[in-house]
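Session log. Operator J.P. requested a structure for one protein chain; no other inputs attached. Running the standard single-chain path with token output.
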Amino acid sequence: MKALKTTAHAVSITAGRLTGGARMLPSFLIVGAQRCGTTSLYRALSQHPMVAKPVLRKGVHYFDMAYGRGLAWYRAHFPLRRPGMLAFESSPYYLFHPLAGPRIAWDLPDVKLIVLVRDPVERAISAHAHELARGFESEPSFARAVDLEPERLAGESARLCAAPLSSSHAHRHHAYLARGRYAEQLARLEPVIARDRVKVIDSGRFFADPMPVYDDLLSFLGLPPMADPVFDRHNSRTHAPIPRALRTRLSEHFLPWDALLLSWLDATPSWRV
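Structure written below.
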């Protein structure tokens, strides 16, 4: 099955390159954060009649993992241009990768970005369960994985910048706390992408009452309202209970970073209310 998918992808990209001049580039991107509801929002937006998703999969991962393939390769992932349609994709590593923001700003100078955020403690727990289930994490204890994170990530961001087409397994799969420091990542985006082109969404509020959040997002994207979209949760993960003391310690770790989100959300994060 994997071989068939790989072959189908190669054929599709080859065909896409041949018609590249007639294909769309994204008008907006869901750039993160990982385990914050990006798949659910992707599927909700994909229902809109004026939105075009990638041909094969939701995340192309061009600006983080495949930048060396070139813009023609990226364009080949999207449908042919149609009047009034906006293309998009969802690659939640873009927010955390140190080079993705400048690359996006260079190749898509007018693009709008969507960032979802959630309780960073819950995000970290969910991310560990996710990476463990996919075989990218060998440490079964969440507490131990958190303790290992500084050593695992030491120097990795600098190494990615020094070797721009390289990759880092630890940076992509073991950043449980670092990916939850959302304001740090948004601050890195701000010098290259204007704040008025970045929409930060509190996932807790989106899942509690999706329609107002969805309508506001459509307005941000310049899209008309959509009647009766379907909202579902996708890719949820179960996990073992976490000790109260560890939760408290991590919540205190994130407190100053959560406070910096106020200016992006125009509200206190839902998990701090």
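Operator note: Strands lie at 26-32, 51-52, 86-90, 112-117, 198-202.
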